[in-house]
Amino acid sequence: MELLEKLCRASGISGFETEVQEIMKKEFEKSCDKVEIDNFGNVIAKKGKGKKKIMLAAHMDEIGLMVKHIDKRGFLNFVKIGGIDDRILMQQRVIIKTKKGDVKGVIGAKPPHLQKAEEKKEVIKHGKLFIDIGAKDDKEAKKMVEVGDPVTLEPNFGKLNKSIYYGKALDDRLGCYALIKIMRQIKVKDVTIYAVATAQEELGLKGARVSAFKIDPDYALAIDTLVAGDTPYIEESESSLELRKGPAITIMEASGRGAVTHPKIRKILINVAKEKKIPYQIDVLEGGMTDAAVIYISKEGIPTGVVSIPTRYIHGPSGIFSMDDVNNSIKLVMEALPNF
Question: Domains in the chain, please, with CATH?
Fold first, then answer.
C-alpha cells in the first residue's frame, strides 16, 4: 500500500505532472527494458522485443486549480483545471505548488451569515470563490505565490474498513498503480508491451493521442476508474456498478462519442474473467470517456478496450475504492494479455 499511497499523495494536475511522473519513471525502471519521458510528458515504458505491440495506458494527471489573479488584499482568484463540480470546492484545504515550495491555503467564499436569501439558494460558482493563504496584502502574497502556479487539493490517503480505502487523485492513480504492478509481473513472450502513464487526460485525452501515434500498437487497453453507483440517490439505471464486485469492462463510452470496445477485446476480457473466475461487471457509459477514446482512432484504427476500477466520489477531494477491485483489475489484464 505504500506505493499506492505515494502515488495518491503526489501532486500532478494536468500539465504539471512532474512529481508523479518521476515516481512512475523510477518504478518502471525496476522492471522494464526501456523507459523514456516523451516531448509531451508521457512516461513510456517498454518490455519485450516481439513484433506484436500492445499498449497499456493510465493517466497520471489529476484535476486541480491554477492561480489566475492576486487581489490587493492578498487573496487568490483561480481557474479550474479539468472537470470539477463547484459544489465541492468551498472551504477545501489546498496546496499551491510554487517555485519556492508548497504554500498552504483554504478556499473561501462569502459566509452564509452575510448572504441574501436569493444567494443562499444558488451554488457558489468558482468565480466567486478565492484562496486564502493568510497574506496581509498583495505584496506579501506575491512573495509567496505567482500567477500560473498550479494548485492541488490537500493530499490524503487511508483505510476505512477491510479492503475499502480513500484517497486523493484516485482518478487515475489507481490505474497508474495497476500499470506498475502489471509490468513487474508480466512475462513477455513474442510481444512488446508498452506501459504509458499519460499526461493531460483531464484536458482532452492529449497524452494518449500523441503516445498512441508514436507507438502505433496492434492492440491497446486503457486502465482507469469509473463512477460507482452503490451510494444513496443513484438509480440502478444510472449506474449499477458496485465496489467489491470486480473491475468493469466497458462496452461503450459517452453514448458512442468515446471508445467503442473492439469485439475481439471485449470477448477476450469477458471469457478470461469467466474462465479464471475473476469477478467483473459490464458498463455502458452515457457520459465520460477514457484515453481509449483517442487511442482507438489513432492512425488506421487500433483495437482497444477499457478495464475500469469502480470508484466513489471521482473528481472530489477524496474518493473511495476497494483494493480487491484493484487487484482483480490487475489479474484480469495479466490473464487477458497473452490472448491478444
Answer: 2-62+168-339 (3.40.630.10), 64-153 (2.40.30.40)
